Known about the structure:
Chain B is mostly helical. Chain B has 14 helices and one strand.
Amino acid sequence: MGMSWATLGRSRMYFWLLTAPAVLYIVVWRLAPALYTVWLSLTQYNIVYDALPRWNHFENFGRILRDGGLRGSLSLSVQFAVIATAAEVLIGLAVALFLDTDPPGRNLLLGIFLLPMIMAPVVVGTVWSTLFDRTVGPIPYLFQVLRGPDIQWLATPATAMLALLLADAWEWAPLVALLLFAALQVLPREQFEAARVDGAAGWQLFRRITLPQIAGMIIVAAGLRVMDAFLELDKVFIMTGGGPGTSTQFISMFVYKQAFQFYELGYASAVITVVLAALALAYAMYLRGYGRALRPADSR
Amino acid sequence: MTARRRWGHLVGIALVLAWTLPPFLYLVMLSIKPERILIERSQVFFWPTFERYRDFIASGLGLPIWNSLVTSTLGSAGTLLLGGLAALTFSFLEFRGKTLLFLVILIPRMFPPITTLIPIQLMLKTLGLIDTRLALIILFTGFEIPLAIWVLRTFLDEIPRELTESAALDGASLPAIIARIILPLSGPGMLAAFILSFIFNWNEFLFPLIVTSFNARTGAVAMMSFTAGYKKLQWGSLATLGVVMTIPVILFVLAFRGSLIRGFTAGALKG
Amino acid sequence: MSCQPRYRVAAGLIVLLLLLPAAVGSVSPAGAAGTTTLTFLGPDFDEWIAFVKVANDIGKPMGIQIKPEYLPWDDVFQKALIDSKTGVRTWDYVYIYNTWVPGLAAAKAIQPINDFMTTPEATNAVQPNDFITLTTAGLELNGKLWAMPMLAAPYMLGYRTDLFSDATEKQAFQAKYGYALAVPQTYKQLMDIAQFFTRKKGEMLAGRPLNDDFYGIVMANKRGGFLFHRFEHILVAFGADLVYNPKTMQPTANSPESLAAVKYYIQLHQYMQPGTDTVTGGGAERVMAAGRGAMAMDALDNMLSVLPVSKLSSVVGSIRYALLPSQVPNRPHANVGDANGLAIYALSQQKDAAFKFATKVLSTQGTKEIMKEYPALVPMRASVVQDLEVRRNYTDVYAAVDLMIKQKPYTAFIPPLKEWVQAMDIYESALSAALSGQQSPEDALNGAQAKEVELFTRAGYLR
Lengths: 300, 271, 463
């Protein structure tokens, strides 16, 4: 399908020329700082008190193995990522299907639906922490007016997690909807007509025809979201600060605290290196297995 | 049949709006509610006050917003350029290690800023670029490259290979193929990638905070400092901040929604 | 169809070309010939805005101007730190908070004021003996003063005098608790009063039915620094250490005193406003300003910047400030000190000019000018507090600081420990878990103690 390396011939030079700037840029501005971080993970470096990083071999990694708080954070992040992604896929799929039925003002509707996604994450966190705020927020007020239970929304572990999940779904379901809508749009219409002529309806149409063809895109969207939700920081930071206790201290909050509050860059780098290595591995396997799904369903 | 459809559409539209709009509308309401009755939730009707917005404007946001505009636009242009070239490679070329290369591009983005902040700041200082817009442009170019590659690659994959292959057989050089065949067909994709990376650059806070001080300060940083830290954290001014930060982006997306959607759906090339 | 993209691309390229020169060319700050511009890095607080304004007024005839860069509070520390580590020389002045002193001093980001007091003239300009040591000790480290003291933020108790002097309430209180309703002198009394005044909507308060719930005490308990910042006063009042014993370097998170303080706080928590766990200082004061609380425990300037301001508050004139209550007899009115100051950036290119100018602006006269701009300023100079004009025009501030000077409350300071933020975070996490009922106070504190010991061992303080 594509030109192979062998058939390029003279054009090989052009390809190098074209990609060289990008590669150079990435090596200097993206890779080098990242490698610096990996190097830092082998040092003891408190940026406030240590003048220079001090080589301490694998001490940081040993500490990671013993760190119960870290394990807790990882498990919280995994739970959050999985549940949030599931919710976003469901909501996004529902909206995408709806938009595919071509309602009036569809483009405008999609545009509006996309708004949470393009708001600055800090603003999203602010919005939702205000909504749940027990002094100014409408949600507790609603509960109060309807004589519901007096819940400490952001100060109880279970409801704090719920609030974060809701905010995340609100913010990112639009992305999933956009991707799935794109996938739906390229499905050939004829097959639906043919199926309808054969007597199939509604649910069967969806399950037998639509779903298999957009499965690839669903997996792509889910993959994107799981990774980002796993590293979620802004909303947690603003809404709960990791609390109550450590019940919403996701891995990114953990690293943030180590780096920005304790200023232990060495340990923070070690943690992030380990986490990202694991993530990279998972993502590599996912890409390998579903490499073809990176392209939308096509008729090649 | 059509009546039921119309009803269905109406319900659907209502649900979507009810899900998306209320949080934002509440923010707007808070931003114009007078300070004294701010915590009286039962008071839904009141005479609005715009003094918070006045204060905002008075706090001199002209230069920062201009900085944001310039750096976001040029940064996104850079992203398009580098990402586009990379996307070409991914889309048209078969070689081993594609996955690895994509990961190498993707992973650095996930490193939290604090650790990469210092080497980057050092590099910028050596180049004498502290507190310049150029520094931000250089940084912004790289942030959304993975996103750009992904969007553009999807788009480029849609270009029928017969066109490029026949042109190659006819002896056209690579730059010619790119300029004459690929570029004109990838307009919507490029626009979509541009818009998305523009938005993320516009909202970027941490790097501009550290790298700039007076001259190249961006809108996001200027607006965040308006809430003045922990002491004066008031819902009213926070709400105003949220609204002001979001309005430009909202208008932008709504204005370009058609192109954005087209860029994603690649519908222009099919059917 | 193929026509439009080409137009768009062309239009796009033209726009880009136009922006290019704007991008590369940087705007150089317009400085009139002969003006010295001093840069200031700090938070966008009213007192610093006032400072910059007054400084520019004073500086105009001298040809000195201050150019401020306002950032969110936490980011000021980070920026000062990273800029100094990477050799950026932009700044002259840096705002400093007392808990930042050990860090920025160790990182050599700021220069101690003592380094400039090399001549009698310079020392006289600073007037070091004029500072109220109760408030300034937090800005000192290793015998040196690291910043020019500007604003003190002592923690005090704000209370509704109208409620405390209401006849019906006094009668009811006497009947219920057996002693007269007055400003609480002990924490037991504080608890009683908080309990007494916590009422639901519809109940009576001072002879009138309430339109909303009313709370005994209003506080800001958001996890992430606020919670501990409020609790630490009670911790100290109960005779406990601030997390560890500085003489033995042994953590004492689960000492009996610490446990007692936590239990007390859990009980007091019932009488606080519902949003207390997610609200910061400003938010809590808004609730008090709306007339929903009988008492508030907060930094004095926090309260002063909201409660007496008619635009923001419905209780103007009804609030008075008292020292925090006592618990343990040898720590009367115990509190933990808070200080804000102006430090000189170590890499500044105009250090001497900056120092001279700072002594001028933060002198007695200068401070009075700043107070005119920002009446909630709690000055750290005795001469300012005693000044007749100040006594007359800023009665709240005068009364409060005068109380502090006369009664000499027991004032502790956050120890200059390298790992303080981590140690504090461990404790605060346990406190938060105990407050929300996730863990019993004993379990929470025992768990915290274990983590503290691990931290201190790792840091090399314990074997």
